[in-house]
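Summary: Need help interpreting a holo structure output

Steps to reproduce:
1. Submit the protein chain below together with the SMILES for glutathione.
2. Request a joint structure prediction with the ligand placed.
3. Inspect the C-alpha cell block that comes back.

Expected: a single structure record containing both the chain and the bound molecule.
Actual: see attached output.

Input attached:
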Amino acid sequence: MAHPPFHLYTDAQFASPYAMSVFVTLREKRLPFDLSTVDLANKANYATDYAARSLTRRVPTLIHEDLMLNGDPVPHKLKEYATQQWQRASVQQWAQLERPPL
Ligand SMILES: N[C@@H](CCC(=O)N[C@@H](CS)C(=O)NCC(=O)O)C(=O)O
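--- attached output ---
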C-alpha cells in the first residue's frame, strides 16, 4: 500500500501546541498522514536520525514528498495545499463532465 503523502513528527507527550496545531489541520483538511513521536524529554530530537529529518530539531516536523517543513507557517501552508487539491479535483470533475460521450 502506498504511503500517505504526509508524515508528521510530534512530541511523545503530545504536549506541543505547535505540533497539535499541525495535527488538527491535517485532520480538519482530511489529509492522510503517518505519525511518529519524538521523545523530547530524552532529547531524542538531537539524535542524528531526527536531525536528518528536521532542520530545527524541534517538533513539529512535517515531511511531504521530499520536502521538510518546520515552523509556524506549516498549518497555513497545509490549508493552502488542501484548497489547491480541491480546486484541482473540481477542475478535473468539470473536464470529465464536459467531455462528449464516445
Ligand atoms: N515556533 C517553533 C515552535 C517549535 C517548538 O518550540 N517546539 C518545541 C516543543 S513545543 C520543541 O521541539 N522543543 C525541543 C527543543 O527545543 O529542544 C517552530 O519553529 O515550529
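--- end attachment ---

Reviewer comment: The mean pLDDT is 93. Residues 7 and 81 are 15 Å apart (CA to CA).
Status: needs-info
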